[in-house]
Amino acid sequence: MELLLNLLNDPNPSLLGQVLAAVGAALAIFMSGIGSARGCGLVGKTAAGIITEEPEKFGKALILQLLPGTQGLYGFVFGFLVFFLKIAGADGVTAGQGMFLIFASLPVAIVGYRSALYQGQVSAAGLQILAKNPDHNTKGILLAVIVETYAILGLVGSMLMFFIAYPIPR
Amino acid sequence: MAIVKMNRFSLLTFERNKQILLKTLQAFEQVHFKRLSPDDFEGMDVIRRNVENAAALENELSRVNYATDRLKPYAEIPKGIKAMLTPPQEMSFEELDRFASEYDAAAACESVRGCDERIKSIHAELSRVKTENDNLRLWAGFDAAPSELDKLKHVRYITGAVNKKTAPDFLVNLEAAFPSAYVETLHTVKDDTVFFVVAPADGWDALTAELKNMGFTRITLSFTGIPADKVRENEKRIATLALEAEAALEELKSHAPQYAMLLTAADHYRTALERAKACENFVNLSDVLIIEGWVPQEESPNLKKLLDTACPNEYYIEETAVEADSAEVPIALKNNRFARAFEDVTAMFAMPRYNEIDPTPLLAPFYILFFGLMVGDFGYGLVLLIATALLLKFAHLKKSMRRFMQFFFFLSFGVIFAGFLYGSFFGFALDIFKVATAPDGTAKAILSSDYDILVMLVMSVVIGVVQVFFGFGVKAYMAFRDGKPLEAFLDSILWIITLTCGLGMFSGAAPDVVPAIVFTISQYGFFGGLILLFLTQGRSSPSIGGKIGNGLMGVYGITGYIGDFISYSRLTAIALSGAYIASSFDMMAVMIPMPARIIFGTLIFLVGNLLNMGLGFLGAYVHGARLQFVEFFGKFYEGGGIPFKPFSPKNVFITLKETKTNHN
Predict the structure, then answer these.
(1) Could you say which DSSP state residue B442 is in?
(2) Which of A119, B24, B448, B529 is 20 to 30 A from A55 in CA distance terms?
(3) Measured between CB atoms, which of B576, B587, B615 is closest to A156?
(4) Pick from B577, B588, B623: which is nearest to A156 by CB?
(5) Main-chain dihedrals φ then ψ at residue B176, nearest 5 degrees
(6) What is the distance between the alpha carbons of residues B390 and B560, in angstroms, rounded to a whole number?
(7) Distance CA B509, CA B512 (A)
(8) What is the residue-averaged pLDDT of chain A?
């Protein structure tokens, strides 16, 4: 325990710090990435069924499929910032900072993962609107965007933790 | 800015005037029919006449649609940007009618259908012949006609297959068992090798029995002549068929110039169908046609003028102003050019009831502010402004699309304004926007995401307080207007006072800045307000228990209002996420080393910002609407009115010329 505390309190940048920061970046990217992939996959399967019957609805189906794809982007953006500003940064990372970055990545990683799945379900259901009542397709998009809110909040939460702890040097 | 005042009318005329009347009213585009039922006229011999031609018109329409779908690939129609720049064909109502009577759409559809069916049958035949040939080519080695072989008396033959692995053994074994048999290997398909066996007629049964034992499966020949001959014959047939198909397609293409005319005819059928369907709203008392409906008050004189020309002296009309509480009156909104662009936001929630007010002009300024704050980028705002301005100026858009573009045109100003506040230009923090000074003495934008996140959060909640109080104000105004000043005070103004005092109590947190008297007054105001609310919120309940329960519920509602204020923090959250994503893409673009940056950096910058801009607009559109619907409308607006759907022509392709009778 004491050893752990000592490690985390070590004011000098270390390889351990970099490794921990990398874990944070990786979590953000792969969790939200898997979520988005599954969400998009779910919508894509349903969309393929509709496009078989009505190929002209491809464009609109694609928009619905893309909606759960943004979570992966959010995770990537956060992971990218952690990588370039901290891991590859000139100052190095202390072990404590690395631990902090792991926690900072959790909102975008976990919310991104789950919300992409839920958003995929709403989008897939929205495809039914596209199939049966295409004039109201926009409403299906709006329903799915509501789910997006929480992924945005996850990203903002992670970003706030990151930037409040490490303001961009100027 | 208001809900259009309506008159309810009852119109009686003779059945013989129906067609001319329908056309007149359709061109007028200002009448919303009420669906009458014979049951409304109890004790009278009122019936509903059958709609004679609706089914026939639907049939015609589907034929024309079939023909246009078929011709579309060959018609010379402008696509993409060119399509938007091409003005739509303009026709007057009369011209459309005349066109329909002169142009024989049915004949055109019939010949298109004829060509199409011919092409289909030719293609079916083609694929049949091709399959047959594919099959026959396998038998290319079979250079005898089965019909000739069948005539042989002293020898008999059989064709069949064995597994290709056992084929060599099969040959050896057969040779050994029946030396008199002649065997020829024809070909191999997948795992089977196909043989042709000839042997003397006597002893044939023994041979076939042995063949069966050796795993030989018989294949019955599907042809009678020599396969190679048949293949050649079929090839000739394929060539002829291909020519025929081409000719049929050419004939189909020759109808392509009629594409536009067919689309016009489709519009005519749609419009006629609309008339036929309108008849479902009417009833008849012997020869008298009874029509009821609504017309905007200001259009009422025009309606009478039109009736005088359509069926002079053969009609009777009675009009009454619609009473305020009517639930069945259709609702039309009338706003100035600015607020009209936001009517779709109101309509997406619900049209107002006749006794409510039109919330569109009230929400429009808030919507622009919210949308702007959530997107918050000077560059994105400029893109939106330029794109919508160009579309509105040069493109020929449908009325609804035009309104949608105007909506975004107005929103772009909010985005540009907020972009200036945030100092963000495509995610870059430009120095020219840095007009304020940071605590450390450096220049910064007015609301910088590096220094002012807390300020931004507080600001968005304050904006929320303003909008929620404004909503209460509107509710109070409506109660005053309806002569219920007590209700206005207890349900709206009292809430504003209580909530303001509640917020004022936060001043206690900063005793050095705010004089203590503010805190004291707030305290009394807040608790006094709560007590008054508790005493009055349940006043409509009949029992004492109900009054207490509903009073408590009313006071508890304060938590909901606090939730409403917090909900406005999404303004900042969405703005931040957009800003972070934009600046991350910019960072990636700049990070690429120099010679490659020109291409790849630009690409990342463009694609990333385009994506973020699209996401930003979509998110801001949805959340802007949500704040109006839940937080703002919840205070004063119920909605649930029926939208005014005037009886009008249904045009998809052509545009009706604006006449003096239709002007909306």
Answers:
(1) -
(2) A119
(3) B576
(4) B577
(5) -70, -40
(6) 44
(7) 9
(8) 88
Q: In the predicted model, what is the mean pLDDT of residues B73-96? A: 81
Distances (CA, A) of B233 to B132, B136, B147, B225, B244: 11, 12, 17, 11, 17
Assigned CATH class of A18-165: mainly alpha
pLDDT per residue as tens digits for the range B294-320: 999 999 999 999 999 888 888 999 999
Chain A partners of B449 at a C-beta cutoff of 8 Å? Answer: 163
Residue B283 has pLDDT above 60, yes or no: yes
- For residue B287, give the DSSP letter: T
Same domain, B293 and B318: yes
Q: Which of B274, B265, B263, B270 is nearest to B653 (CA)?
A: B263
> Are B273 and B153 within one domain?
no
**What pLDDT, on the 0 to 100 scale, is given for residue A13?**
87
Q: What integer pLDDT is reported at residue B663 of this predicted model?
A: 41
Q: Of B49, B92, B65, which is closest to residue B649 (Cα–Cα)?
A: B92
Predicted confidence at residue B659, as pLDDT, reads 58
- Nearest CB among A77, A141, A146 relative to B581 is that of A77
Does a structural domain hold residue B442? Answer: yes
Domain count, chain B: 5
Report helix, strand or coil for B158: strand
Write out residues 98-127 of A within 8 Å (CB-CB) of B: none
pLDDT digits 0-9 by tens, B539-559: 888 888 888 888 888 888 888
For the four alpha carbons of B380, B383, B386 and B387, in that order, the dihedral sign comes to negative
Tokens 């009852």 locate to B10
Place of tokens 């303003």: B466
Give the residue on A whose Cα is nearest the Cα of B581.
A77
Scanning the structure block, which residue is given the tokens 């009778």? B661
| Distances in whole angstroms, Cα of residue A15 to Cα of each of A20, A23, A93 | 9, 12, 8
Shortest CA gap B426–chain A (Å) = 16
Q: What is the rounded distance in angstroms from the CA atom of residue B331 to the CA atom of residue B327?
A: 10
Residue B287 belongs to a domain: yes
User: B398 and B385 in one domain?
Assistant: yes
Query: What pLDDT digit, counting tens, does each position of B226-257 carry?
Result: 888 888 889 999 999 999 999 999 998 888 88
Assess if residue B131 is contained within a domain. no
Mark yes or no for CB contact B577/A155 under 8 Å: yes
Which of chain B's residues have a Cβ under 8 Å away from the Cβ of A170?
Answer: 442
User: Which runs of E-coded beta strand occur in B570-646?
Assistant: 642-643
CB under 8 Å to B132, separation ≥6 — which residues? Answer: B230, B234
B293 and B368 inside one domain: no
Whether the CB-CB separation of B649 and B274 falls below 8 Å is answered with yes
Facing residue for A159 by CB, picked from B580, B588, B623: B580
- State whether B555 and B490 are in the same domain: yes
HSE (CB half, 13 Å, CA atoms) of B594?
0
Q: If you ran DSSP here, which 8-state letter would residue B272 be given?
A: H
Residues B118 and B256 in one domain: yes
Query: Are the Cβ atoms of A73 and B611 closer than 8 angstroms?
Result: yes
- Residue B156's domain comprises 144-225
- How is chain A split into domains, by residue range? 18-165
Residues facing residue B185 across a β-bridge:
B195
List helix spans (H) across chain A. 2-9, 15-53, 58-66, 70-81, 95-106, 112-132, 137-165
Between CA A87 and CA A28 the distance in angstroms is 14
| CB atoms inside a 10 Å sphere around CB B251 | 15
Q: How many CA atoms lie within 13 A of A91 on its CB side?
A: 12
Q: Does B583 touch chain A (CB under 8 A)?
A: no
Check which CATH number belongs to the domain holding B192 and give it.
3.30.70.2750
Question: Is residue B558 one of the residues assigned to a domain?
Answer: yes
How many residues are listed for chain A in this entry? 170
B195 has which bridge partners? B160, B185
* pLDDT tens digits along B27-57: 889 999 998 888 888 878 888 776 667 888 8
Question: Are both B554 and B459 inside the same structural domain?
Answer: yes
